[in-house]
Task: structure prediction
Amino acid sequence: MASVLPKIRFRDPQIEMAHGAGGKASRRLVEGLFAPLLLGSSIEPLSDAAHLEVNGTRIAITADSFVVKPLRFPGGSIGELAINGTVNDLAVSGARAQALVVTYVLESGLSTQILEAEVRAMAKAAAAAGVVVVGGDTKVVENGKADGMYITTAGVGAPMPAINLTSASVRPGDKVLLSGPIGDHGIAILLARGDLELEADLCSDTRSVLPLVEALAEVAAPGIRWMRDPTRGGVATSLNELARDCGLAVILSEDAVPIRDMVRGACELLGLDPLHIANEGQFLAVVAAEYADAALEALRGTPGGHQAAVIGEIVEQPAGTVLGANGYGGTRVIDMLVGDPLPRIC
Amino acid sequence: MKFVDEFRSPGVIARATDEIRRLADTQIHYRFMEVCGGHTHAIYRFGLKDLLPSNIELVHGPGCPVCVLPMGRIDDGLSMAQDANVVFTAFGDMMRVPGTSGSPLEHKARGMDVRIVYSPSDALRLAQKNPDRHVMFFAIGFETTAPSTALTLMRARAEGVRNFSVFCNHVTIIPAIRAILDSPDMRINAFIGPGHVSTVIGCRPYEWIARNEGKPIVVSGFEPVDVLQSVVMLLQQLSRGEAKVENQYKRVVPWEGNRAALKAMAEVFELRPYFEWRGMGFISQSALRIRDSYAQWDAEQRFHVPGVRVTDPKAAQCGEVLKGVLKPAQCKLFGKECTPERPVGALMVSSEGACAAYFNYEHRKVSALTSIGAPV
Result:
């Protein structure tokens, strides 16, 4: 086989926190270094999980690492995130998680009580998501490293019938749906770290989005073009990836995006854009216009989906761009997250 | 959300824009400078340019504290933190500002103990919690942030905290406005006055702008309605041939300023004879230094300061943009060598920097709309 030298475009001299923040720097690292060397030249736009055929059976596969600090926060903990994160990556690729494997990197000196609590949280989240944990591995590192624990989960899933997601199928006129209020997770973690002396009764939104994805698939499977869970980098980053991958534009109605007042308030105070804040229990879907009403109704009729909304539309121009339109006639470009505005959040 | 939604109300905004169109003389090209970077950010963030007639041009001023700091001061601050016992603390804004050998964040990635704080008192608390380390706070900002640095130093002295110091880079707004007005290529009709600075200094310090220079100035808030109402007030003054200081931001800014804050500043700081501003050169009596009575907490007295002077990259035209002579996109490096991800000049770093605001919210919109032949 003729070997083609992969083109390495990643030129940053060293790794910085921004390379893990899910925004532009992360993308540069993955597309400029990992993909050319590991995935070869025939790669599709990168998504949350890969679908491939093994001995004639289609499967979906994904992996995710969790390095959140603090380990427990209002509404969840690292163990719960580690299950839901992987279940959700599979769900938004159009697959039902079947089995997970888990790797723990534990810090010497970690109290067993804390570890046990996380393992229990994982067992509970796995049962709720209908997935089994079938194996894993454990490593221990010196005291002072790994912030208590890091967890990695990898999962395989069964693709749902009749769903074929690709950004290439997105067309002008398609609608952009969002499953619920944004920013809860990122802001809850920020407040839980206690550096800000801000208090709010706010919980992370960590959950499995599989029931919502299944409800959507039931009524709109042939009309679903693309899905993504807007974790690090937030809704803005996911939609920018979409705009870039499909070569079209997204017009976002800023007033239609559901955001709790507490999240808006914290963002106003801290100068953050809620569209850049991470979520752990929401997803975005692009749906053909004729399926949009049914899709929205299905989401709103599913527990946890009552605040779902149509937040935007796909248009032809300005290609590759996300434009925000506000309620009084102003527009702005909404860019991907640049840098790393927040501490480690997942 | 209270105190936000009422200032973004489409109905009120529509009334303000109608009023602007009624007042603006179509024969005149108006150039209004928003002094404060917070306004620059708001104007792009809320798409306010879309709402103004094309003969009202908003010109970005020098009021972004990160942007006006010369690179040498960043190098000086980082050089003090080379000592492994020193913890370098600063506001998040500072973290990506490039020094000669990289930004604070890049130094952190190489192992320097660099931490973001949200107020100088957080840095002091960090020092109290870590008595065996020395915590240095890299202080930046106009009169907006100077009082909190002053109060922190007063507390450090009162509580006898010895492992804490401040590298003072506080600057004052009035000399910067004077430098702008003295600049020969300056053609500004009126000013949108800074909101946050004025909460501290009040409105009186601007009176000479109206009286001696004949330029109207309206101290403004940061919401869409605030900025548009300020434009209305400026147009009203100009149409009546008046020039005075007005306060649109009365809900926050007292005419006389904040006496307690000014007193704290006077206790701790004195004026430097001169200070270098990025792109604008040395401006006399334009910055604050820590008084000798607080020398023990003054990083410049405790540490060796190299006093580095670094000229900006030749091609970067930060100074012209800071003075409002050039629009961000007219700089040769804009969007090419200089982007928010890899900034060459500080104006591309802070969200209040004209270049970052323009890049994030406007630049691609303009090029995209131009490409489809839409009016821009």
In short: Chain A touches chain B through 33 residues (CB under 8 Å).
